[in-house]
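Long-time lurker, first post. I've been practising inverse folding by hand and with some scripts of my own, and I keep getting stuck on stretches where the structure tokens seem ambiguous. Below is the full token string for one chain I'm working on. Before anyone asks, I'm not after the true native sequence, just a reasonable design that respects the backbone. If someone could post their per-position residues I'd love to compare against what I wrote down in my notebook.
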């Protein structure tokens, strides 16, 4: 499940990356909601701060993207590509909120800026709009994600190994000491164990089975 979420299995509409030049009909409404140029400009400033290098978005692109996503009149829930990016945002929030995990310094500003927009009182697109609510949140996450995905993958692996270590000790997840340094040590031990098992499978001899990795 995590792998699919990290890999952006559901892309956002490609029109968001392709400026609509010389379009005869400039749409400004998104499922009945009017997009003002001032609000779109403000949103583009947010994207620029997160590292967007493509040309600024315009209301027509956003309205066209919304049309592409609004493919089910009977289902008001956000489109799958939006839901996936909201799940990614939740992972980033969990990473920032874990007191035992120390994110790499270079990703912290982008992560906080991204999460900050999601919790602002002002949003470009109301979250209550059927199918396309939170499209602006999804665009924000998508813009920041290339800088964050590797660190989020590290954090998820940290949680996995911490859970294994807790189970091996017969403790709860939050009862053991486990930080980034310990995660790195356990990850190396796990890699060595997997390499040893691979060698055993590929060789003709049968050495003594390796013990489960532990950190004391």
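-- Answer (accepted) --
I ran through it position by position. Result:
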């Amino acid at each position: 499940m995590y792998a699919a979420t990290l890999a952006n299995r559901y892309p956002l509409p490609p029109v968001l990356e392709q400026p609509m030049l010389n379009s005869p009909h400039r749409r400004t409404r998104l499922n009945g909601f009017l997009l003002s140029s001032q609000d779109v400009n403000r949103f583009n400033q947010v994207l620029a701060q997160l590292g967007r290098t493509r040309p600024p978005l315009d209301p027509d692109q956003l309205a066209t993207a919304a049309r592409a996503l609004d493919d089910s009149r009977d289902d008001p829930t956000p489109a799958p590509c939006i839901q996936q990016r909201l799940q990614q945002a939740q992972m980033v929030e969990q990473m920032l909120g874990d007191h035992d995990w120390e994110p790499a310094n270079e990703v912290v500003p982008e992560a906080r800026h991204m999460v900050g927009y999601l919790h602002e009182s002002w949003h470009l697109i109301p979250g209550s709009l059927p199918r396309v609510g939170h499209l602006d949140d999804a665009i924000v996450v998508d813009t920041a994600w290339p800088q964050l995905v590797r660190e989020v993958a590290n954090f998820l692996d940290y949680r996995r190994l911490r859970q294994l270590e807790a189970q091996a000790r017969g403790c709860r997840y939050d009862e053991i000491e486990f930080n980034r340094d310990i995660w790195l040590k356990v990850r190396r031990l796990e890699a060595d164990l997997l390499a040893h098992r691979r060698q055993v499978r590929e060789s003709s001899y049968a050495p003594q089975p390796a013990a489960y990795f532990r950190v004391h």
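A couple of notes from the structure itself: The first strand starts at residue 29 and ends at 30. The helical segments are 2-6, 37-49, 59-69, 80-97, 108-118, 135-169, 180-202. Happy to go over any region you disagree with.
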